[in-house]
Amino acid sequence: MHHPARTARPSRVVTGLVGLLSVAALAAGSLLLADAARAAFIDVPETGQPGHLVLSADPYPAEFLDISPGDPAYWQVTARLEDASSATLSLELRKDGGVTAHPRGITMTVDRCSVPWTDVDTSPSCADGLARVTVATPADDYTTSSPTFELRPLRADSPEHLLVTLAVEDSAAAMADETLMGLTGNMGLGLTATAIDDRPINPIRPDRPGGPGGPLANTGLDGQLAGLAAFGALTAGLLGLALVVSRMRGRRSLTNDEVN
Q1: Domain limits at 179?
Q2: pTM of the model
C-alpha cells in the first residue's frame, strides 16, 4: 500500500562525546508501518549535547507489526557528519526477546550503500553496489554485546546509507509453527564515529538513553549497554508477529478448504 510522504521539521541527533569518540543514539518509538510515511527520512531528535554524527531514519520512530514469513520489513538509517570533515564509523547490534532467539525467528541483515537506496518498499537496490555488513541470525546472542563491524570511513560530503532487513524464516514450516505466535523482541543499532581530522572534540560525559539530559525513550535495553557510552536503540517491536502469522495460516487453510 502506498502512503503519502510525511514531512517533519528536521532536528539534529546529538551524540555523547568521550575524547575523540562520538556515539549516536536512536530512540524507541511507536509507529505502525501501516500508517507510516515511508518516503521521508526524519532526523533523530537531539539527546542533549551538540555532536558531529547525525542520523536519519525511515521509519522513525519504528515499530514493525506486520513481519511474517516471506514478507520482510526494511529500515533505513543514514549517517552523516556535521562540523567535521572525516571520521571512522563502526556498528554494533543489540537484540533480545523470544522472536530473536527462536530457531525460525528474526534474522537481521545489515547492508550499506554509498548512495541512497531505491525501491525500498518492494525490492531494495543500491545503484553503486551494496556491501554486506553482517547477518545476525537467531543463533547470535547479541543481548549484551556484539562484534564491532567497521564501515567505510565517513566523509562530510558522503553519507553512509544503511539498510536493515528484518525477516522471519521463509518456509512452510515457519508458517505453520505455532511456537512463533505471540513472540516479541527488540533490535537496535549502535553507530560510533571517531574523528580522524584535526578538529578537536571536547570530552563530554554522555547521558544514558532515557536518563536526565536527553529525551531518549527507555527501550528496556539500557541496563545491558554499559559497555557503550550513550548507546541507544531504535527498537523494532515485533508485537504483531503472532497476528500476521495467524492471518496467513488462516488464508492458507481457507484455500485448502476451497480446493477440497
Answers
A1: 21-259
A2: 0.64
Number of domains observed in the structure of the chain? 1
The separation between CA 164 and the C-alpha centre of its own chain, rounded to angstroms, equals: 6
DSSP, res 251: H
Determine, yes or no, domain membership for 9.
no
Distance CA 246, CA 250 (A): 6
> Are 75 and 57 in contact, with CB atoms under 8 Å apart?
yes
Q: How far apart are CA 54 and CA 50, in angstroms?
A: 10
CA 254 from chain center: how many Å?
35
Neighbours of 48 (CB within 10 A): 18
pLDDT in tens, 176-216: 888 887 788 888 888 877 776 544 333 322 232 233 322 22
Place of cell 516471506: 70
Residue 226 lies in a domain: yes
Distance between CA atoms of 59 and 40, rounded to whole angstroms? Answer: 8
